[in-house]
Amino acid sequence: MSTSHHTENLRLSRRALLVTIQHELRSPVLNIIGFARVLRDEGSQVYNNDLGEILQASNNLLELVDDFLEHGPTSRSNIPDPHDIDTLSRLRHDLRGPVNIIRGYVEFLLELAAARHDTRVERDLRRIYWLTESMLGVVNRLTREIDFDANKEKSLEIIHPELRLVTQALRTLESLETNTEVQAIPARVLVVDDDEQSCDLLCRHLRKEGHEVEVAKNGRKALHMLRSDYFDIVLLDIFMPELNGYQVLVEMKKHKRLRQIPVIMISTLDDVDSMVRCIELGADEYLPKSFNPAMLRARLAASLEKKRLRDRERHYLEQIRMERERSERLLLDILPNAIVERLKNGEKTIADDVAEVTVLFCDIVGFTEFSARLSAAEVVRRLNEIFLQFDTLVEKHGLEKIKTIGDAYLVVGGLPGSNPDHAQAIAKLALDMQDTMADLNNFYPEPLEFRTGIHTGPIVAGVIGRKRFTYDVWGNAVNIANRMESHSLPGKIQVSESAHELLQHAFLLEYRGNLPIKGAGEMATYFLNGQR
User: How many CB atoms lie within 10 A of CB 336?
Assistant: First the structure.
């Protein structure tokens, strides 16, 4: 093994040792504090005073550990020699004071919990006691002599077997740090802070990273700028005149557009309660004013990346919404509204017996001969022009167009969800269709005429097919309406006896006579000439 390779391995091992020591010393203390808080919040009031003493001693314990990690032989500046036995021995001595306080109160509370038969409290108290033992065990183990000499067989892994995993993780991290070039995404940043010095320092960091920075000296000015301009992210101080940072954050989250802007709170407060409250109010990150520039850069980049992903998500959701609306509009062009809703609600087979509807058939007279004299494009254009006008009239009268069959046009009134006064609505539609054709014929070199038939009766209606499905109607009423049309005269609207009974009081009807109708025998028929 080369000297440089050995030195690198040794450096990584020592850095791994630092990480492991930090974890092994702080974890028990933090867990002691955590269990004591849980007991205080969930237990009986009779324990609270003594739990307060345990928490005070635990915080003293944490201060000793943090001071040791910051200034002792395991600090980053002293990584080459992290096994100073004298310093570790002093730490072990200093820890015994708060540890003994914790143990004393735990033993007293265990007796109290046993007398109250409070097994849950007993269990958590024993955990606290075990954690103090675990912590002292860590310090005792660290005071063993560790041989860093590469020519001897001993290694850090003898005392810390988990160091191999930590070392591998650190090697991966350093590889990423070396090989990954993080490109800052330029952004428009609004800094909200009334402290001129802090604001200037923060803006210089941001501009150095390539960001465009605007400044608001108070919360009210910040809200005005946010409403009138565009910003990618806001760095918001808490203590400001007029409106403080909490109030600005609350106002932003009420606003539909502003609530999408990520907010990083920056404050001299670094207590947990303030951080938690800001996150609950909707802040994305929280930084103390004594921030590390690298930490600011990382959190800013993370917040901007999350915003970019959220913006992309909203864009995709908007596209999906627009496509869904487009699909629904197309579906509504094919099917009645009530049928569309039933399909959306999951109905697989839609078939209805409708006791009474009014059916209208109309057909162009002599269309076969007429179409033979025109090009295909002209035939389609002419039919489309006529039927588009008819479609508008059908919608106006609250009816349902079922389909076109070549040059024939089929409409039904009285289906679920359509006009309940179906007979009168169909009659008005037929008269309007006559007027429309008269207007269109003024522009056609060869006028067209329609025959129209109307009948009232029961039908079956439903959706047929899975691909290119259609909503259709069947039954004797459809057949008779078709016969009314085929037996009618050019330019005339012929109605059956059942339709006549519903229309005679509001419309002008002329008795035509009895006609033999296939499948129905002889029937009385009438011409619809107008409204009364």
Answer: 21
The full DSSP string for 464-520 is: E-SSS-EEEEESHHHHHHHHHHHTS-TT-EEEEHHHHHHHTTTEEEEEEEEEEETTT
pLDDT digit string, tens, across residues 426-459: 999 999 999 999 998 888 888 888 999 999 999 9
Tokens of 280: 């609950």
- The greatest distance separating any two alpha carbons of the chain, rounded to the nearest whole angstrom, comes to 124
The two three-digit tokens of residue 403, written as one number: 């389909």
Nearest to 437 by CA among 409, 412, 399, 400: 409
Mean pLDDT of 355-376: 88
Instruction: Spell out the domains of the chain, with CATH numbers in brackets.
Output: 3-179 (1.20.140), 188-311 (3.40.50.2300), 337-531 (3.30.70.1230)
Cross-sheet strand order for the sheet of 212-216:
212-216, 188-192, 233-237, 263-267, 285-288
pLDDT per position as a tens digit, 191-208: 998 888 888 888 888 888
Q: Which residues contact 449 (CB under 8 A, 6 or more apart)?
A: 364, 365, 437, 490, 491
CB 243 within 8 A of CB 193: no
For 158-203, what is each residue's pLDDT tens digit? 445 555 555 565 566 556 554 444 455 788 999 998 888 888 888 8
Angle, in degrees to the nearest 10, between helices 245-254 and 272-281: 20
Contact predicate 510/529, CB 8 Å? yes
pLDDT at site 133 = 85
- 285 touches 299 (CB < 8 A): yes
Separation of alpha carbons 137 and 63, rounded Å: 19
Which of 403, 418, 422 has its CA nearest to residue 362?
Answer: 403
φ and ψ at residue 237, rounded to 5 degrees:
-80, 155
Has this prediction a pTM greater than 0.90? Answer: no
Which token pair is 21? 């020591």
Tokens of 49: 């005073």
> Using DSSP, how many helices (H) and how many strands (E) does the chain show?
17, 13
Q: Could you count the other beta carbons within 10 Å of the beta carbon of residue 458?
A: 12
Instruction: Please name the residue that has the structure tokens 């106006």.
Output: 396
State how far the Cα of 259 lies from the Cα of 155, in Å rounded to an integer: 54
Q: Which two tokens stand for residue 92?
A: 């072990």
Q: Strand (E) positions, 115-207?
A: 188-192
Chain centroid to Cα 367, Å, comes to 55
- How many Cβ atoms sit within 10 Å of the Cβ of residue 461? 24
Rounded to 5 degrees, φ, ψ at 293 are -55, -35
- How far, in whole angstroms, is CA 410 from its chain's centroid? 44
**Is the separation of the CB atoms in 362 and 407 below 8 Å?**
no
Instruction: Count the neighbouring beta carbons within 10 Å of the beta carbon of residue 234.
Output: 26
